[in-house]
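[retry 2/3] homoisocitrate dehydrogenase: previous attempt timed out, resubmitting with same input.
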Amino acid sequence: MLSAVRRFSSTPAALKSLKIGLIPGDGIGREVIPAGRAVLEALPAKYDLQFEFVHLDAGFELFQKTGTALPEETIKVLQNECDGALFGAVSSPTTKVAGYSSPIVALRKKLGLYANVRPVKSVEGIGRPVDMVIVRENTEDLYIKEERTYKAEDGTKIAEAIKRITETATTRISKIAYNIALQRQAIREASSVKSIHEQPSVTVTHKSNVLSQSDGLFRETCRKVYDANPEAYGSIEYKEQIVDSMVYRMFREPEIFDVVVAPNLYGDILSDGAAALVGSLGVVPSANVGDNFAIGEPCHGSAPDIEGKGISNPIATIRSTALMLEFMGYTEPAAKIYEAVDANLSEDKIKTPDLGGSSSTQEVIDDIIARF
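[retry 2/3] homoisocitrate dehydrogenase: success.
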């Protein structure tokens, strides 16, 4: 459990009804997003929460049908009507498709969701101890998708892409990383459960030895933000890691990493790779977060190879649902969801094929809800 992150409100109002946008997207997104809805509807009455849901469209399959991957109506409803949202998965064509761009990338930009927060945590007693949060900058780097292809004088093709790093985006992503580190430590100190981390730390990941200007700016800005506020951040151990050695050390000694902050591309790769440390992408959650809104999003893709078979793992979506609630300030019901998921995983009985089991998606959902 992430246990505390920067929230929109530290003392949420006694809100009886929350409106949640459901964006299944492509492939197994349509099979796992109902899991998020189911756990919210099943939360015990003591939390005094009621939910209203609105189905919203986005995705590559929608683009193939209508020529639009992200309808304006979806953006409008999220901006004006919803308190939070869940996004399932999106298919990503490996070759250029004229007019298509990723709807989740566009949503991050249009809603100002500049941070992608991805907790990766092992269940106690199962495998190696892992308890890290990867904080990925969400709005720039190579993901600005400014590319061009042209021909050299000899007629061969050349493709170029712009990598953009700004001081503004790096400042805000480093601040949220430091704040998450502090809040995680506060929860650890208040807990009776022994943690693998004695001191909060933030590891800044970069490749400034090669990309001295772009990654150099990311590294320098992260350090500048840290040094400028010793009163707030002095208890945090500041670390740096070149991205290739970061990958090596993450697999060799994952227990040394607490919070990792990285530019968009490296954060994407690291968080997917880290999923291997805890068994499957099917159990790793994420949240796309801005100053006023959060979208929970499982880290897995649309998985067309298992679509329609009823065996997709709903745990990443269920954990993402809890993470969305955390950022909305509802930590107690979020904790209940995390505890139920951990209990399911630790018993090692009802699990989907990606974790070596033979259970269906619905059987896992039912088992987790039964633990509330």
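[retry 2/3] homoisocitrate dehydrogenase: The chain is about 40% helix and 20% strand.
[retry 2/3] clearing retry counter.
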